[in-house]
Amino acid sequence: MLDRIHTVKEIALKELEGVADQELLQAWRVKYLGRSAELGEILQGLKDLDSGQRPLVGREVNQAKAALEKAYESHEAELRIAALEQSLRYERLDVTLPGRPLPQGRLHPATQTLRRIYAIWAKMGFQVYRSREVETDEYNFELLNMPAHHPARDMWDTFHVTEPGILLRTHTSPGQIHVMRERAPEPIRVILPGMCYRYEQLTARSEIQFNQVEGLAVGRRITFADLKGTLTAFARRMFDRHVRTRFRAQHFPFTEPSAEMDIECFLCLGEGCGVCKYTGWLEILGCGMVHPTVLRNGGYDPEVFSGFAFGMGPERIAMLRYNIEDIRLFWGNDMRFLEQF
Amino acid sequence: MYIPLSWLKDYVEITIPVEELVKRLTLAGLEVEELRYVGLPFPDGSGREEMEGYLSPHTKISGLSWAPDKIVVGGVLEVMPHPNADRLVLCRLDDGQQEHIVLTGAPNLFPYKGLGLLEKPLKVAYAREGARIFDGHKTNQEWMILKRSKIRGVESYSMACSEKELGISEDHEGIIILDDDASIGTPLVEYMGDAVLDIAISPNIARNTNTLGIAREIAAIIGAPFHPPDYEVPWTGESIEGRVRIEIKVPELNPRFVLGLMEGITIKPSPYWVQRRLRLAAIRPINNIVDATNYAMLAIGEPLHAFDYDVLVERAGGKAPKIITRLAKPGERLMTLDDVDRDLDEFTVLVTDTAGALSIAGVMGGAESEVNENTVNVLLEGAAWDFINIRQTEASQKLTSEASYRFSRGVHPAMAERGVRFCLKMMQQLAGGTIAKGLVDEYPLPPKDPVVEVTPADAERWLGIHLEAWEMAEILKRLEFEVEVKGEHVKAKTPDHRLDIGEGVIGKADLMEEIARIYGYDRIPETQISDTIPPQYGNAKLEREEQIRDLLVRLGLQEVITYRITSEDREGQRFPQDAPKDDRPFLRLANPVTSDRVVMRHSLLASVLEVIERNARIRDRMAIFEVGPVYWVSEGEALPEERDQLVIALTGPREHATWLGADTSPMDFYDLKGLLEVLLDQLKMGERYYLPVEHPSFHPGKSARLILGESPVGVLGELHPLVHERYEFGENPVLAAELDLHSILERIPEAVTMLPVASYPPVLEDLAVVVEEAVAAKDVEDIIRKTGGRVLAGVRLFDLYRGEQIQEGKKSLAYALIYQAPDRTLTDSEVAKVRARIIEQLEKELDAKLRE
Ligand SMILES: [Zn+2]
After folding, report:
1. How many CB pairs under 8 A join A and B?
2. What is the pLDDT of residue B478?
3. Residue B106 phi, psi dihedral angles, 5° rounding
4. pLDDT bucket at B46, cuts 50 / 70 / 90
5. Is a pLDDT exceeding 70 seen at residue B176?
6. Do A249 and B29 count as a contact with CB atoms less than 8 A apart?
7. Measured between CB atoms, which of A136, A277, A334 is closest to B614?
8. Confidence (pTM)
9. What is the C-alpha separation between B339 and A65, in angstroms, rounded?
10. At what angle do helices B288-300 and B211-222 cross, to 10 degrees?
């Protein structure tokens, strides 16, 4: 009996060596470890043995079964690894096939530029203040130090509406008066974005509708040097951290002194390129100290308060950043244009 | 305005290169828009002789430089007929080295043809073989190199040049005949090489619409010696007294009127140097008297007017004329110099005499009293006018002139006298004659030249720099302020050539600007704001609007931005052709640029549909949106309501075909609705309903009104076929939502409260019911939810079936139900009870049958 047990075990182990797949392995398991396998039957027949042999045979059978279980497990593991290796070797995707596409949405490039401007100013403590697009002559001109027939009005070609004294704002400056009247005598730091309108022929360089972002800071200790420092900080965030700025005297009726800020061309860093017309400089924004008349119209005593203001064109900035040559592309909404940003 | 460099040098010593000068001027607020070389060499030393480019982003550079060895002063010794051509002549010309035969068709040499050897040579601008000049026959400035050729059998290799060929002006009528002081053989660039600065004159520097003004600025900016002209007049004639009188009726509009008298002048062309300067300044030379008035205006900024004195005497019946300035009378007319018979406005100021109107004050003279070739005696007017009044006249008469350009920006009355004095001297120099002694000067309203006091504290406060009182005084003196320094106080009296300095705090700001400009903006440091941080308000509305943009972009939509100015036709295109018109009033432009941009839009829908249409040929699938205002005019309100709208449009296949397969069926109502649902969920928007709607833009069976809470906020659906056909769309339906963004933004909750997360397992179960086709899915779901009560935590429709397995005219709706209690595990019998109630209720209310 003990021999038989031993022989069965040997045969089983030998047979196991030749088992090459899971299916055969399961068959082997049934054959040698199943309920009706020989070892099982010996175990079930233990009760028929005499009590002297019973423990010995029982132990032998159990040991043989344990050995076969163990052999099974290790062989199973080997087969699994072999099968995995096999499948890893043959399951090859063409990784150059395109992926499953997902729809892609994008913000309009004007919005993207506005967002960038908002974000930079927000970090410098300037929050967004918006006001209406259809304005009165009073807010668009008079309160900004441009009384009726003032020659400075020639600088703005204006769309008037049929209602007398009403126009499409030519700049977001009316918002300066709105915000000052709302907040005086608190200090102010805001940016004023929004759509503006000018009576222009549509060309690659001029639009009847365009965004503008103005800024306004009012307080008791705001200087032209602060204006220079603040705008230079902005330019370095917006364009290039090494960029230099240059302030040129200019005239705007609502600021005094007034300036225009040029920045060193951020594309060629001043070396000269097509965008900067080989001059190394780009004209970016207008700015100045808020005119005493404007402060007074906003409810601030110009003897006590001072402030600075500036204004820039997001589309113009986008044109420089992305080398866009025709401003009409912005509101033309050709998908081939929009999808590039 | 155009200013020749050579002219500036009459008044200021300029030793720096012109390019440097241009940069300094531009930085100091006198933006030089163009620097045009007229002979002078280019700065880069490349030896180039023509240039197109930029000196800075603001300054274009152009022009021609004259090679000193190729372009010289020549002397025409004799003008001879051409053997084979009547319209050409041959000149014997001395270029200082040898004699040449030069061929020309210049009509201004013809008077000399066949006269033999000339008494003295005619000085001309002579270009040798190989010289680079502009081609006189081209409309633009295109350069060419002089080459040897044969013209009508005569060899030609060099030429006498016109102004156009040398880049001085557009004039190609004849050749330049120089003044006698030009010496033969001198390089032309040495004799009259020049450069012209085109300077943008902003309204606050109207005082600089002249050479002297710019020269004064240059002197102040670069610290160079300034030599203003001498206004002393060599009176040579009898006294002017009693020979003309002045009466000013409205001093507010005409604060000063000055007259001078010239007698015995000879009208003839001006010498070449005067003509050249005028042409460089873009003024056409006429004759010596008119040229003298223009020259004086360009030199010092006072527009002047010359009358034929004898015509005035005749009009006065042989007596001394009386000049009266007054407002035009009703119906009064005047024939101006441009040959227009003008109907005058009652606010227009006229210069008149006892016989009637002579000129429109400050704008344009009348034809009758104008100087002509027979004029012998000239009455010269220099006056001051109210600039706003001049602007009104300009606008109403649609008439501008060099004079009105200046007067409409403000000319100080002190300039009237200086102008007359300067011009009298100039006239005598150009036209001979005698200057009657003295001026007739009516000055009823001299302006007050403001005196402004500034201190170093002002510079500190405005500019953020420390300047000593004397430093500020120095700068102001350079600009001809009369300055008095007492301790910290700088008292500055405004010079009598400028009107832009205010009183009090405004005057201080004006002076701060002058000080900063001349001191140099580049020398002011860059600092960060040291003032108190203001109260923070944020902008919740903008943040929400941007949140919506971000959500839509995340859902795969492309943002578009369209024109807010549109036309009624374009707006109407979003309705069927014969639908009733949108009769709500539009905000309308009074001065549109084009006929298709005349009103402010009532909806974004038409514009967004135009975007779909414009891209239809290049993109079959589009998912776009726009956020922006529409403009509602209401009775009695001057300003329209600007109300934000959101429009979404979808068209084309749900997915693009790919090698992995795709759902390429066209997007439909439910794509749009699904998108909106996600948007509203993300915005944490509460209760919402979709009700069928009749809207002219939309398909009546495939559109809905969106209700948030109680309020309708817009319409979504498939475009009405009759609207679809009005656009050039592709085959696929176009879905659109037109939403009142304002109402949506208002309803976005401020905060979200967390609900407890269930800790007991849910019971999941499906429920399918068969109902009449007409029953709305929402009604079924509402009953399930209502009946299910608190333990029914979720209801999701997962199948809709119509077909063989159920009766015709009915549909089956299958729902996945989630039962869940917060405090225990639900038992099967509890769930079964709820389910039974739901089925019973559906049966009772909707005649629904459970589908087994
Ligand atoms: Zn560059």
Report:
1. 284
2. 95
3. -65, 120
4. low
5. yes
6. yes
7. A334
8. 0.89
9. 128
10. 30
Encode chain A in three state secondary structure. Answer: CHHHHHHHHHHHHHHHHCCCCHHHHHHHHHHHHCCCCHHHHHHHHHHHCCCCCHHHHHHHHHHHHHHHHHHHHHHHHHHHHHHHHHHHHHCCCCCCCCCCCCCCCECCHHHHHHHHHHHHHHHCCCEECCCCCEEEHHHHCHHHCCCCCCHHHHHCCCCEECCCCEEECCCCCHHHHHHHHHHCCCCEEEEEEEEEECCCCCCCCCCCEEEEEEEEEEECCCCHHHHHHHHHHHHHHHCCCCCCEEEEEEEECCEEEEEEEEEECCCCCCCCCCCCCCCCEEEEEEEEEECHHHHHHCCCCCCCCEEEEEEECHHHHHHHHHCCCCCCHHHHCCHHHHCCC
**Alpha-carbon gap: A158 to the closest alpha carbon of chain B (Å):** 9
Spacing, Cα A196 to ligand 1 middle (Å): 28
Ligand 1 center from residue B350 Cα (angstroms):
54
Cross-chain residue pair A219–B559, CB shorter than 8 Å: no
Work out whether strand B489-493 and strand B99-104 pair parallel, antiparallel, or are unpaired. Answer: unpaired
> What does DSSP assign to residue B606?
H
CA distances from B850 to A28, B711, B767, B791, B842 (A): 52, 35, 8, 21, 9
Q: What is the pLDDT of residue B45?
A: 62
Cβ pair A110:B461 closer than 8 A: no
B614/A contact by beta carbon, under 8 A: yes
Cα→Cα distances B343→B338, B357, B366, B400, Å = 14, 12, 13, 16
- Pair A327, A205: CB distance under 8 Å: yes
What residues 184-243 of chain A have any CB closer than 8 A to a CB of chain B? 186-189, 195, 197, 199-202, 208-209, 217, 219-226, 228-230, 232-233
CA-to-CA separations, B797 to B199, B262, B768, B775, B800, in angstroms, rounded: 74, 103, 9, 15, 8
Half-sphere exposure of residue A107: CA atoms within 13 angstroms, side-chain side? 15
What's the whole-number mean pLDDT along residues A90-100? 90
Q: Which residues contact B595 (CB under 8 A, 6 or more apart)?
A: B567
Q: What is the pLDDT of residue B47?
A: 62
Using alpha carbons only, give the angle A332, A337, A340 rounded to the nearest 5 degrees.
150
Contact map slice: B 29-68 vs A, CB within 8 A: 29, 31, 53-58
Question: Which pLDDT belongs to residue A282?
Answer: 92
Distance from CA of B511 to the nearest CA of A (A): 9
- Report CA(A282)–ligand 1 centroid distance (Å): 8
- The pLDDT of residue A46 is 78
Q: Return the domain boundaries, chain A.
A: 2-90, 109-338
Nearest to B548 by CA among B816, B730, B383, B747: B747
- The 10s digit of each residue's pLDDT in B209-228 is 999 999 999 999 999 999 99
Degrees to nearest 5, angle at CA B167 with B161 and B168: 85
Q: Cα(B560)–Cα(B608) distance, rounded to whole angstroms?
A: 8
CA–CA separation, B320 vs B244, rounded Å?
A: 5
CB contacts, 8 Å: B553 with chain A: 105-107
A277 to chain B, any CB pair closer than 8 A? The answer is yes
SS3 (DSSP) at B14: coil
Q: Is B591 on the interface with A (CB under 8 A)?
A: yes
**Number of Cβ atoms within 10 Å of the Cβ of B752:** 7
* Chain A residues touching residue B565 (CB < 8 angstroms): 159, 168, 197, 208-209
The type of residue at B660 is L
Query: A109-338: what CATH class?
Result: alpha beta
- C-beta atoms of A128 and B542 within 8 A: yes
d(CA B494, CA B384): 18
Chain Cα centroid distance, residue B799:
62
Question: Average of pLDDT values for B281-297?
Answer: 97
